[in-house]
Amino acid sequence: MTHVAGTTPYPWPWHGELDAQRLALLLISCPATSQPGEWPAAPAEGLASVIREAGGLVVDVRVRAGGPAPASGTSVSAPGWDGFYASPLDTLLRRAGRDLLLLAGCCMETGVHSTMRSANDRGYECLLVADATRAAQEDLRAGAVSTIEMSGGIFGAVGATTAVTTALTSKEWI
């Protein structure tokens, strides 16, 4: 069994089958992220690189026409705060066989949170990568994280970039 270390409120993924071939990183961008430096790009970019190297999929999800278009890679646009709403995201993930989702980007309490709740409703196993996610208002961060973790992880789990990277680069499962 392989989990990402230190995730709360439960070991992620819950079934202990961390498999990069089933993994996708959703990098959410909202209108507020159109300015450079608006969200923690360095942890997210490093994480994206590790995900790709391990065989995972990285998807740039632009919600409400947020952020600049990615230079390369897979991207989808959604007209609402939820990256699944009126977009091909669910179809893209299912066709690629991806059911383990990492979520990062901006903003935590809008696009990231809405997309995570929607993914959970669709049966995806979700992990918020908290240190690679910016809040629009820092005083709302704790509440947004608490909402994910309540009731034993009603919307998924919460973890950190370093722990995800360590789990994916560990010789134990590669």
Can you characterise this structure?
The chain has 174 residues and is an alpha/beta fold. The chain has a single domain, classed as Rossmann fold. It contains 5 helices and 6 strands. It has a 6-stranded parallel β-sheet with strand order 3-2-1-4-5-6, with helices on both faces. Strand 4, helix 3 and strand 5 form a beta-alpha-beta unit. Helix 1 packs parallel to helix 5. The radius of gyration is 14 Å and the shape is globular. About 5% of the residues have low confidence. It comes from Nonomuraea insulae. GO terms for molecular function: hydrolase activity.
Q: Can you name the CATH architecture?
A: 3-Layer(aba) Sandwich
The CATH homologous superfamily corresponds to Isochorismatase-like
Task: Count the DSSP helices.
Answer: 5
In whole angstroms, how far apart are the ends? 12 Å
Unreliable stretches (pLDDT < 50, length at least 5) are 33-40
Main sheet makeup: 6 strands, parallel
* Nearest-integer average pLDDT: 88
Structural class: alpha/beta
CATH topology: Rossmann fold
Strand content: 15-25%
Please count the beta strands (DSSP E, at least 2 residues each).
6
The CATH class name reads: Alpha Beta
| Rg calculated over all Cα atoms | 14 Å
Strand/helix succession: EHEEHEHEHEH
Number of domains: 1
Helicity range: 25-40%
- What is the 3D form? globular
What order do the strands of the largest sheet run in, or round the barrel if closed?
3-2-1-4-5-6
Please give the structural blueprint.
Elements: E1 23-29, H1 41-54, E2 57-63, E3 74-78, H2 89-95, E4 100-106, H3 108-121, E5 125-134, H4 141-153, E6 157-159, H5 161-169
Parallel strand pairs: 1-2, 1-4, 2-3, 4-5, 5-6
Domain Isochorismatase-like: 79-152
Protein name: Cysteine hydrolase family protein
Keywords: Hydrolase
